[in-house]
């Protein structure tokens, strides 16, 4: 029996508008609060993952961006292998009861080959698209039912942010309350096509690997930040409801206001961590000033753009399509020459659907 190969693309979330930062259970990856992100069109930034399974393989292996990584201690990838194999095993058993034979893929090792077409571990959510692509591709390989909620529970155990990246459009991760994590999963708030006038400008300020990984950083925050307790109890629940409403009503004023406030509070809880975590740099702060000035110059007092930063210095600026040209000119004016230290481009959201090939 030859190898069985499947490959798939997956987008990162671009970007969280209500931030995930903190776990109440680090093993199952259960968060301290709900969060919400926008998934970018897959043609632009993606992880492309190909997986093969074969009887002859002697271990599970990963090649990431062309280089083999040692995954023997990578508990999160093994969570994804274990959970998808368990579902495959059920299918194999059900088939046996019908006197049919399914290739016993649940017992084979896999070789995973994945490439991100954007910087890895730089705060551009590579773990979200990478682990979502892993689970999605395993599900194709194992011929699992196309149940995205179930898959999102599995992707969550690979990287929290990955549970949202299985869906397009505007996606919430509901923290859930069950101790076993059965209700901690992603749901789509609105599809890709919902708000075509909304665009995102991604400013890659640095592609260097960040000093503090998201996983490590957020647990320091949980253990030391008093501000995080206020955030998760008093701020996020109301903000999630308001953000959901703003998205449903395509209300850019509320969307922009909440997005910037949540980014600011996320970076404030990082600063409130002992020792403090700094993800923003001077260029990030200059972008915040430029967007603030731009909004202050609005003749009718309305917000024209919103910035947000995840766990890294790279910015995403959301704005209605009609303002994008002006914003790009403004960024180009303040950062002439660009490209060695930063790169600015204009990406349109919500363009494509999934591209899954299997052979
Ligand atoms: P980011 O801000 O890029 O999400 P994280 O610190 O959260 O940074 O996660 C980075 C880690 O995610 C990488 O070191 C790697 O272990 C994992 N990862 C990233 N991309 C992939 C991928 N395509 N396939 C498998 N694992 C990946
Ligand atoms: C600011 O999903 O990368 O929300 O669940 O430990 O894998 P783990 O963390 P991760 O955290 C996301 C942090 C963030 C977005 C980001 O920078 O990826
Ligand atoms: Co991440």
UniProtKB/TrEMBL annotation:
Example GO molecular function: diphosphomevalonate decarboxylase activity
Catalytic reactions on record: (R)-5-diphosphomevalonate + ATP = isopentenyl diphosphate + ADP + phosphate + CO2
GO cellular component: cytosol
First-tier enzyme category under EC: lyase
InterPro entries to which the protein is assigned, alphabetical: GHMP_kinase_C_sf (IPR036554), Mev_decarb (IPR005935), Mev_diP_decarb (IPR029765), MVD-like_N (IPR053859), Mvd1_C (IPR041431), Ribosomal_Su5_D2-typ_SF (IPR020568), Ribsml_uS5_D2-typ_fold_subgr (IPR014721)
EC numbers: 4.1.1.33
Pathway: Isoprenoid biosynthesis; isopentenyl diphosphate biosynthesis via mevalonate pathway; isopentenyl diphosphate from (R)-mevalonate: step 3/3
Residue ranges occupied by any Diphosphomevalonate decarboxylase-like N-terminal domain in the UniProt entry: 17-186
Mvd1 C-terminal domain span: 200-359
GO BP annotations, alphabetical order: isopentenyl diphosphate biosynthetic process, mevalonate pathway; sterol biosynthetic process
Alphabetically ordered keywords of this record: ATP-binding, Lipid biosynthesis, Lipid metabolism, Lyase, Nucleotide-binding, Steroid biosynthesis, Steroid metabolism, Sterol biosynthesis, Sterol metabolism
Pfam family, one: MDD_C
Family, similarity comment: Belongs to the diphosphomevalonate decarboxylase family.
Protein name: Diphosphomevalonate decarboxylase
